[in-house]
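Aim 2 progress. For Exosome RNA helicase MTR4, the working sequence is reproduced below.
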Amino acid sequence: TDQLNYSELYKVLEISSTSTSYIKTLLAHECISYYNPTIKHSGTGPFLVLLVLCNCNRCFVCFSLAEFMPQVKVEQVDTVEGCSHEVALPDSDDYKPLKPRVGKAAKEYPFVLDPFQREAILCIDNNESVLVSAHTSAGKTVCAEYAIALALREKQRVIFTSPIKALSNQKYREMYEEFQDVGLMTGDVTINPTASCLVMTTEILRSMLYRGSEIMREVAWVVFDEIHYMRDAERGVVWEETIILLPDNVHYVFLSATIPNAKQFAEWICHLHKQVGCCTEHFFGDFREDNFNTAMQVLRDAGDSGSSSGGKWDPRGRKGGTKGPSSVFKIVKMIMERNFQPVIIFSFSKKECEAYALQVSKLDFNRDDEKRLVEEVFNNAVDCLSDEDKKLPQVEHVLPLLKRGIGIHHGGLLPILKETIEILFSEGLLKALFATETFAMGINMPARTVLFTSARKFDGKNHRFITSGEYIQMSGRAGRRGMDDRGIVIFMVDEKMSPAVGKQLLKGSADPLNSAFHLTYNMVLNLLRVEEINPEYMLEKSFYQFQHYRALPGVVEKIKKYEEQYHSIEIPNEEGVVTYFKIRQQLAKLGKEIQEFIHKPKYCLPFLQPGRLVKVKNEDADFGWGVVVNFCKKTNVKVNSEPLYVVEVLVHCSKDSVKDAATEAAKPAAPGETGEMQVVPVMLHLLTSISSVRLYIPKDLRPFDNRQLLLKSIQEVQKRFPDGVPLLDPVDDMGIKDPALKKVIQKVEAFEHRMYSHPLHSDPNLESVYSLCEKKALIAADVRTAKRELKKARTVLQMDKLKCRKRVLRRLGFASPSDVIEVKGRVACEISSGDELLLTEMIFNGLFNDLTVEQATALLSCFVFQENASEMPKLTEQLAAPLRQMQECAKRIAKVSADAKLEVDEETYLNQFKPHLMDVVYAWANGATFAQICKMTDVFEGSIIRCMRRLEEVLRQMCSAAKAIGNTELENKFAEGITKIKRDIVFAASLYL
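Predicted structure tokens for this construct:
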């Protein structure tokens, strides 16, 4: 055939529209001709066989990406200082400047707007979607309020989404006080769902889109608050799904903390919904390195004096004496004396938060009238609690602190106390608030001063300096609009910090908004259920895919550059030189194989006696010849099941790398440099040569002169052997009898014979032509790498994972072989707050049928508890038995997933279902008081409540799942579970509602 029928091709192959576009573009190119397109079938499905003829040798360079690339351009708009304004629009459109507002503004403000706010509001007046990227407390909410006011004025509906329920409650209160016609939808709470402005979590909006809610037909604007949450590894995908599913006629306001790639996000929105997208950014600040170094010098002097007076180094490299337990007390006291309050003190653990608050509990920051107000607000807040709940230790202990103007805010607090503290702080009744970094997110609650108790945090894996993004988010709380001319940020630094680290922390770019898109079974099943869209479309349109597409032009340019470099190198008699080059390369490869034999401990250790000369080289540092001092075996450390040995070698190091005890790694002395001989630990594989020469070494190597004497001895040996220091022969000297080594040595001898007999070997220009050939070979390797990069960037990512997930769904009976959703699949679509596959399997296996309401509720707690508890509870048999059944079910899913080529580790998969609160939930469902269940575990009270509230959400979804298959008995069981847990302080109504 002369023409390919692309629609048929799409239908038969079930390939993506992007792939079809790629084939079209490729075959339409002037240097390409093709013939005999045929469809063939294999075990993995149908595929296209196409014979392609190319008339040029550089197709990957001249290949036009026009149809394949997102067609978006960006225009820079002139703005005032402190604000950047860029516009992303389709390539085919011409940029049109924003029209000035005609008539009255939708909303007036009692203060002068900042430049970025004025620009964003003008975009909204022009019906253009806008991304507002600014630091915390900069006033981004002004832009959202204006969009809501505009929609209400035009009799349109608007949706405001936020990342979490608590924040949705706060925003609902804020919006209700401003507009009145406001509703709330968070799953567990629904208020005025027919309102023109609806505040909801992003998950609720996603659910509405999948179910084709009628509300969406009337929506003109959607506001996404805290859009930088899209990079969250677990929940970020919900934002991407929602944005992709929203119709093109809806306009958007995205509010984000500072992100360096805001322009890229705006381009994606433009590409996705064919809209003009504006991006306004707010920025400021300079870094004074001279002042920073002065501050660090003070710290060093204090550390040194602390050290000289008996201070000790702790294992993490900190010097004692620089930060005592009363440091926070002193700084907070100084803040109050200088009238810098209110202050937020950020710590990176709940226990630290409470400990620091207790340190300052003797101070009193409130007047008597303020104390009376605090007590009145507190009593009104806890009035809804039972008498027993009012006697909870957390409730009783917090009031004395609050009356003194001291607050605590972290995830382990009771939600009602957290909200009370937020209200008291916003009213100016708390002067010092000790908080974890979660307080930096959400409702606008600025202070005059922000104090960091440490510049480092534990992120679950390592202790590290906080990132510039984390710093920006928290420090943004410093400075109250209209009240302070500046905000104050104080860092407690208890260890040396280089200017580079300090500059990166304070002035580095914020964390980029990188997609965390990943496939979930709930997403795949919902997309299989909906007719207009499929999972492949979701992958193609994701921000994850878009970010890879944007790399294409850069990769093509890179290939062009490498190609030009490659063709610019001309080598005389190139064919002969390449042959010689390949022989040398093969010899080098065989040399490495011999090294692998020599490095085996059983062969080399007998020869690593003190005084033995060895050559040391790692990837980026060549130390040359050194002297073995000793070797040791590392206990409890193995590499590829072999014990690990470390050799202590005396080598010539640069003075800079040995003078500072804090230096992480020694560096070799440069040629001609007067360095210093230093003993460094070396792994066996870094010994590139073992000499047959041994030197006498002094007993004591601590004196400088003794070590330098050995340097002179090494230099003498090198003079005695100008053709190279003699090496141990692996067969004759080391006695290695391995037949495999003999084969390698025979190959070496054969290649050496070819090398010596090659005419180029005796050529006087050998080194110059060889180095040219080596350079050309490296460029050729770069071209190959870049081509692979181009191929990877052109493919739709995660497509293999999608195929694997579909395979799992088919094998477990959730979908048919033709990807039609089955009954099991429809049930799983109802579950999004727990593992949908496992919960559905448990329903269909009848696991819940014989359990009591209390047992079933306790078992479901495993799906929602996510914190690390110190120890496993001893479960009774009535709880342990259903847990074992659930784990057996999970093992089956893990096995099916592994068989379907998904990377699933059975143990890791099972460990995500944590039974640590099963006995607590069981007791609560049986009517125990909150005080009683708190004594059963060391988990914070706030964490218990968070688990219970998530559990109620899972129970609601399980009711819907049971209803989907008409199992009324099971539906009633889960509904009764909700009734049993939904009581008292655990489900006390939010103070914002």
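Residues 6-62 form one domain. This observation will guide construct design in the next reporting period.
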